[in-house]
Amino acid sequence: MQLYDAGESRCVTVTDNGHGFDPDRALDTSKGDGGFGLFSIHQRLAEIGGEIRVESGPDRGTRVTLSVPLMGGGKGEER
After folding, report:
1. Which of 8, 25, 45, 73 has the greatest number of C-beta atoms within 10 Å?
2. What pTM, to 2 d.p., does this model score?
């Protein structure tokens, strides 16, 4: 896990060397398969101006980066 600031955002990136998956399918709720984990995170981050980036594929692991805007304008300020 890596935590860092990128401009006006605080980011966290998590990677693994697992089996991987299709990120488009994981974020698509139209199929009705009951998966709301990543979709829910995507929706909640979008509400506050953040984003989720998922890089994955079969047999190549996964990297997920969450980005949240810094509301106070910098480190140590109240948000």
Report:
1. 45
2. 0.76
